[in-house]
Amino acid sequence: MEKSIFSAGMLVLFVLVSAAWGDLSGRWSGNDGGTYYLRQTGGTVYWYGEAADAQPEWSNVFSGRIYGPRIKGMWADVPKGLTTGSGRLELVIEKGGNELRVVNKTGGFAASRWTRIKTDTSAAQPLKQLEPSGNGDCIRFDPAALSVRQVKGRWKIVDGGHWLFDFGPNQAAARQSLNVIRHYRMDRACFVGRPNPLFTYLLARGGSPSGVMAGEDCVAFDPKTARVSNIQGRWKIVSGRRWLFDFGQNQTEARQALAVIRRYGFSQSCFVGRPDADFTYLRR
């Protein structure tokens, strides 16, 4: 009888404490520079974490159980990264479920604190364009977290409280472009030349999107024979007798863009809506 009463008490304690922070599912930022994707199912927490690099130095998974305000479980590196550690973790849930802190760990785990990445899509919150950060030429986003929203009469693809792509009045183009992003699992928007880039491209997990999407509108070219050429005073990337990209007077950015094309092996220039495309992307 005593055992039964004790178990019921523990259940009530778990319900009361967990109600204080709600669901832990979402994206979290670790103080090791990584991004962690958490999923809470009842009293169990799972995550996948990786370094914020095109080719992550480390990536790991975790499975643990919630005991009151603490989470106890096991972690292990997975071979997407270069490290091969594993061990135990005990975390404490703080600040109403918006921070996690390590209290015990084994196996040399690097992170010691995580902060929830807020993705409030409330219409009451004004949208700002998501800007590149750090010293790179790309902005990262989670394709699963994107949505299409109308803001002051303009249709946009948004990531939480920020917008990535603007389609003006064309809702159909916005939704088709979001389908493209999710199909190829694109997670980075990259630029040559800022703040007014003449060349943009998207990457999927740090590499070139590849494959075929039914119904897409693409033009094939050979990246090995593509070249920069001056045509009537304008610098362009050309393939055969057809020009692909126009850089006006900027020869430097034209050559930088050609280097990007060759680096990622882009061989298809694709469009959503022509002749005036609302969205363009490159793939293998």
Account of the 3D structure:
With 284 residues, this protein is of the alpha+beta class. It folds into two domains: 2-116, Lipocalin (Beta Barrel); 128-283, no CATH class. It is 16% helix and 42% strand. The chain contains three helices and 21 strands. The strands form five sheets. The protein has an eight-stranded antiparallel β-barrel with strand order 1-2-3-4-5-6-7-8. It is elongated, with a radius of gyration of 23 Å.
What order do the strands of the largest sheet run in, or round the barrel if closed?
A: 1-2-3-4-5-6-7-8
Number of domains: 2
Please indicate the percent range of residues in DSSP E strands (runs of 2 or more): 35-45%
pLDDT averaged over residues:
84
Structural class computed from helices and strand pairing: alpha+beta
Low-confidence stretches: 1-20, 120-128, 132-136
- CA radius of gyration: 23 Å
Number of strands: 21
Overall, the morphology is elongated
SSE pattern, N- to C-terminal: HEEEEEEEEEEEEEHEEEEEEHEE
Largest sheet: 8 strands, antiparallel, barrel
Q: Count the DSSP helices.
A: 3
End-to-end separation in angstroms reads: 66 Å
Helix content: 10-25%
Describe the protein's topology.
Layout: H1 2-19, E1 26-30, E2 34-41, E3 44-51, E4 59-67, E5 70-77, E6 86-94, E7 99-105, E8 113-116, E9 128-129, E10 138-140, E11 146-151, E12 154-159, E13 162-166, H2 171-184, E14 188-192, E15 199-203, E16 217-220, E17 227-231, E18 234-239, E19 242-246, H3 251-264, E20 268-272, E21 279-283
Parallel strand pairs: 9-13
Antiparallel strand pairs: 1-2, 1-8, 2-3, 3-4, 4-5, 5-6, 6-7, 7-8, 10-14, 11-12, 12-13, 14-15, 16-20, 17-18, 18-19, 20-21
